[in-house]
Design brief:
alpha/beta, disordered N terminus
Length: 163
């Protein structure tokens, strides 16, 4: 659930399209910022957290497409994601933003998605005008393996930080 597409007052509900999950080729234990499988039936997750996610425990290998809207609204989501240490987070690829500079070095891998993702609207229609580029940040072996598959499947360019 995030503001991904340019839409003047239409909606701020935009969902990750199926081709992203197909490229990753994995199943997640939990979608921590989910509208639910009744709205997004293609989610490859066992469980969805649809409310109060930041106040709940996260378990297992997680998928996170957090809200992008509010200024610094990603920070609590990314703080919790990096404390959890097991999953993939979809974020804007704002490499000069202070939050990106803080969190990117803590990843095990980052996939810069290309071309820009055309997200799915709440009415099921595919967006036509992506507002920004995105990246997938992975922590843990399963996340890195999924990003390697996604790169191989043509979803973007993978960067693995030197340690």
């Amino acid at each position: 659930m995030a503001l991904h597409e340019q839409c003047v007052g239409a909606t701020d509900e935009w969902y990750t399209p199926p081709h992203v999950f197909a490229a990753l080729g994995c199943e997640f234990d939990v979608d921590v910022a989910s509208p639910g499988k009744d709205i997004v039936p293609w989610l490859p997750t066992r469980t969805c957290i649809t409310a109060d996610s930041l106040d709940r425990e996260w378990a297992g290998f997680i998928w996170m497409n957090p809200p992008f809207g509010a200024r610094n609204g990603l920070l609590p989501w990314l703080d919790k994601f990096f404390k959890h240490e097991n999953g993939i987070a979809l974020t804007p690829d704002r490499t000069s933003a202070p939050w990106w500079q803080k969190f990117a070095p803590r990843t095990d891998a980052i996939l810069f998605v290309a071309p820009k993702i055309k997200f799915v609207a709440s009415n099921g229609a595919c967006g036509t005008s992506p507002a920004q580029g995105t990246c997938l940040m992975a922590i843990g072996d399963r996340g890195v393996a999924a990003l390697r598959r996604a790169e191989y499947n043509g979803l973007g360019f993978l960067m693995v930080p030197a340690r």
